[in-house]
From TrEMBL:
<keyword id="KW-0560">Oxidoreductase</keyword>
<dbReference type="GO" id="GO:0005737">
    <property type="term" value="C:cytoplasm"/>
</dbReference>
<dbReference type="InterPro" id="IPR000866">
    <property type="entry name" value="AhpC/TSA"/>
</dbReference>
<comment type="function">
    <text>Thiol-specific peroxidase that catalyzes the reduction of hydrogen peroxide and organic hydroperoxides to water and alcohols, respectively. Plays a role in cell protection against oxidative stress by detoxifying peroxides and as sensor of hydrogen peroxide-mediated signaling events.</text>
</comment>
<dbReference type="InterPro" id="IPR036249">
    <property type="entry name" value="Thioredoxin-like_sf"/>
</dbReference>
<dbReference type="GO" id="GO:0008379">
    <property type="term" value="F:thioredoxin peroxidase activity"/>
</dbReference>
<keyword id="KW-0049">Antioxidant</keyword>
<dbReference type="InterPro" id="IPR050924">
    <property type="entry name" value="Peroxiredoxin_BCP/PrxQ"/>
</dbReference>
<dbReference type="GO" id="GO:0034599">
    <property type="term" value="P:cellular response to oxidative stress"/>
</dbReference>
<keyword id="KW-0676">Redox-active center</keyword>
<comment type="similarity">
    <text>Belongs to the peroxiredoxin family. BCP/PrxQ subfamily.</text>
</comment>
<feature type="domain" description="Thioredoxin">
    <location>
        <begin position="43"/>
        <end position="214"/>
    </location>
</feature>
<dbReference type="Pfam" id="PF00578">
    <property type="entry name" value="AhpC-TSA"/>
</dbReference>
<protein>
    <recommendedName>
        <fullName>thioredoxin-dependent peroxiredoxin</fullName>
        <ecNumber>1.11.1.24</ecNumber>
    </recommendedName>
</protein>
<keyword id="KW-1015">Disulfide bond</keyword>
<dbReference type="InterPro" id="IPR013766">
    <property type="entry name" value="Thioredoxin_domain"/>
</dbReference>
<dbReference type="GO" id="GO:0045454">
    <property type="term" value="P:cell redox homeostasis"/>
</dbReference>
Length: 214
C-alpha cells in the first residue's frame, strides 16, 4: 500500500500535467505569500489547547475534554472534503486507525465545513473516526490557524466551480492551515506540525510512532 506522501506526490504530478500554468503559478504564489506573512503559525509544543465542544457529522456535540479524559488525542485540521489533499490525508489516517487505537490514542478531524458537508466527507471516505464541524473557524482561530484567501485565489476556485464559502455555510472564504497535533490528557500539546503548504500533510506513521513513544 502506498504511503500518504507517495500518494500526494502522484497527485501533484498529475495536477502539474493537467492544470494551466497560470493557475499553478497563482496557487504557488498564494502559498508563498501565506508562508512569508508569518500569520497563522499555530499553537506549538508545550501550549495548552482551548476547551471546546463541536458537533460531529451527525450533529452530536463532542467535548475535547471528555475525549482527553480517555487518553491522548491526535487532532488534525483539514480544509474540507472538496480538497483532494485533505481526502488523501483523511483516508490515510483511516487506513491506520487500528494502529492509532492500538497505541491508545483517539483520532479527531476538524474542518470549517457545515455538519452536512462533514457528513458527506465522512461517508465518501468511509471514515470511522470523529469528524467535527468548526463553522466559522472558531476553534481553528483559537489554535491560530486561520487565514483569509486572497482575492485572486478565490477567483481561481470560483472559475473551477468550487464555492468554498458555501461548503462552510458563510461568505468568509477563510480556511485553516492544515495542522496535526498530539494532545495529552492535561490538554498540553506534545506534538505540533503546521504548514503553509496545503499540499503537505503529516504522515500517520509519524504521529503513531510519536504516540507510542510517550
Amino acid at each position: 500500500m502506498s504511503t500518504l506522501l507517495e500518494e500526494i506526490k502522484v497527485y501533484k504530478e498529475t495536477f502539474k500535467k493537467k492544470a494551466p500554468e497560470e493557475k499553478q503559478r497563482l496557487m504557488a504564489q498564494a502559498t508563498k505569500e501565506l508562508e512569508e506573512s508569518g500569520i497563522a503559525q499555530g499553537l506549538q509544543k508545550g501550549d495548552q489547547i482551548p476547551d471546546f465542544t463541536l458537533p460531529d457529522a451527525a450533529g452530536q456535540q463532542v467535548s475535547i475534554k471528555t475525549l482527553l479524559a480517555q487518553g491522548p488525542v491526535i487532532l488534525t485540521f483539514y480544509r474540507g472534503g472538496w480538497c483532494p489533499y485533505c481526502n488523501l490525508e483523511l483516508k490515510a489516517y483511516q487506513n491506520k486507525l487500528s494502529d492509532i487505537k492500538g497505541a491508545g490514542a483517539e483520532l479527531v478531524a476538524i474542518s470549517p465545513e457545515t455538519p452536512d458537508a462533514s457528513l458527506n466527507t465522512k461517508e465518501k471516505n468511509s471514515l470511522e473516526y470523529k469528524v467535527l464541524s468548526d463553522v466559522e473557524n472558531k476553534v481553528a482561530d483559537q489554535f491560530n490557524l486561520v487565514f483569509s484567501m486572497p482575492d485572486y485565489l478565490i477567483d481561481i476556485y470560483k472559475d473551477s466551480g468550487l464555492d468554498v464559502a458555501a461548503h462552510n455555510g458563510n461568505d468568509d472564504w477563510e480556511l485553516p492551515k492544515p495542522a496535526t497535533f498530539v494532545i495529552d490528557s492535561t490538554g498540553e500539546i506534545l506534538f505540533a506540525e503546521v504548514d503553509a503548504d496545503y499540499t503537505y500533510r503529516t504522515p500517520p506513521e509519524k504521529v503513531i510512532e510519536f504516540v507510542k513513544s510517550i
